[in-house]
Amino acid sequence: MNQLFQSAKDITTTLTKAGHTCYFAGGCVRDQLLGIEAKDYDIATSATPSQVLQLFPNSDSIGAHFGVILVKHHGFAFEVATFRTDGSYTDGRRPESVTFSSPEEDASRRDFTVNGLFQIPNSGEIIDYVNGQSDIEERVIRAIGDPNKRFDEDALRLMRAIRFATKLNFEIEPQTWQAIQSNAHLLKNIATERIQAEFSLILLSPHRAAGLDLLVKSGLIQHFLPEVLNLIGCEQPPQFHPEGDVYVHTCMMLDMLEGEVTLELVLAVLLHDIGKPATYSYDPEEDRIRFSGHDSLGAEMAETILKRLKYSNKTIEEVCAMVANHMNFMNVRFMKKSKVKRFMARPTYELEMELHRVDCASSNGITENYDFLRAKEEEFAAEPLIPEPLVRGQDLIQLGYSPGPQFKEILQAVQTEQLEGKLTDSAQAVEWVKANY
Ligand code: ATP
Ligand code: MG
Question: Domain of 345: which CATH number?
């Protein structure tokens, strides 16, 4: 039996032996019914926070105010939460207060029926106050109680609804869906960090394209990433993009990403053509649509967007590099060896390959550039793409050159010759510098 589950059960055994009611709650029950391995176990109990602390003195009591104790066991941490009712939500974000209550009331404060289930740890019996089991069977996300009221209480649930629908590949029940649409504007009350976290989880789900579409159709995306809406109806040259407009193209790419993806890759796919609407031009003589400079404008826009959404500097840097470089794949077959090596040595190269693969696979079907680079990888595999330099700044000083802007130029030029295979040792390189500079 798995360690995490066993550890969770140990905790519930201790609580039960001390006379408290205690259940597994929320996501772990849902996942188990779906045959998905739970990634954590949340425990709900009649024990008050101080009673929980008494039984598990090594716990983190930082959330005790909200009825939550973080119990550590076998290197895992478990949220042990007292059955509670949330007080009023005056700011639409977090309850003013919590009141300890019955399991039934605790179930009804939760967001969606599929997240409102309890399970008795020992017997595995499900306790269902919210009709969550039938919604899991029917694969439906349904708000518990009046959906309008529930989204009004806490607008993060708008994003969570889309997140669970995407992650679980469930439909959103019509009344819940309507309430999402009519309350979409409440997202303005939610901290950017929390919207971003939900958005990232949506993008990391395999059904991310459907998730993006839900964000668009619900009206939610307008409140944090309106730029994507301009991709809809942005026509592309049919000779290169038979699949349709930029939005369709982007969604297809999101769907074509295979296996485990990084957040940076998905964001780069999402934003790679974000500069197209603003650079659209039609040349009647050639009868051709162009998007000149959409890669560099796209990189600038990506930076603005990702900064606004408070992504990390590393994420922003990587995504912008990928967006800026995505059109250069067209040129790789005509690049000098040194340029190809530098292209391949960029830190985002492997991610860019995947972006390029799906960029072509969703449109023109061209694979030449991808195949060319894969072949080059083999050809260059014997040694590092960028080997140790033959000449360094120190050497130039010894040769009598004085440090300055020319230094970089000389070193770069020597490296180019080295990457081309024309210079192979330092003595040769020194002679070459003397002859050329
Ligand atoms: P995941 O597997 O993605 O962690 P989860 O269902 O465990 O999904 P969490 O965000 O970890 O989701 O929350 C745990 C439980 O707490 C949920 O299942 C739900 O019952 C409840 N919950 C969390 N956030 C909210 C919210 N904003 N409003 C109401 N209930 C919530
Ligand atoms: Mg969870």
Answer: 1.10.3210
Ion ligand 2 — residues with CB < 5 Å: 27
The pair of three-digit structure tokens given for residue 292, joined into one six-digit string: 């000149």
Element (H, E) at 314: helix 313-325
Q: Whose CA is nearest to atom 9 of ligand 1?
A: 27
**Ligand 1 atom having least distance to the Cα of 86:** 29
Which domain covers residue 56, as residue numbers?
Answer: 1-135
Residue 421 region by backbone torsions, left for phi larger than 0, else alpha for psi between -120 and 50, else beta: left
Residue 203: what pLDDT?
98
**Interstrand relation of 118-119 and 126-127 (parallel, antiparallel or unpaired):** antiparallel
437 pLDDT tier (thresholds 50, 70, 90): confident
One-letter amino acid identity for 339? K
Largest CA distance in the chain: 89
Residues 147-171 pLDDT 10s: 999 999 999 999 999 999 999 999 9
User: Is pLDDT above 90 for 91?
Assistant: no
Decide whether any atom of ligand 1 lies within 6 Å of the 115 Cβ. yes
Structural domain ending residue among the three candidates 119, 135, 151: 135
* Distance from the alpha carbon of residue 27 to the mean position of ligand 2, in angstroms: 5
User: Residue 93 has what pLDDT?
Assistant: 60
- Of the residues 350, 379, 408, which one is the last residue of a structural domain? 379
Q: What would the DSSP string read from start to end of 315-372?
A: HHHHHHHHHHHGGGGGGGGGS-HHHHHHHHHSTTHHHHHHHHHHHHHTTT---HHHHH
Q: How remote is the C-alpha of 201 from its chain's centroid?
A: 5
Contact 219, 262 (CB under 8 A): no
Closest Cα partner for 226 from 309, 164, 294?
Answer: 309
Instruction: Please report which ligand is nearest the Cα atom of 26.
Output: 1
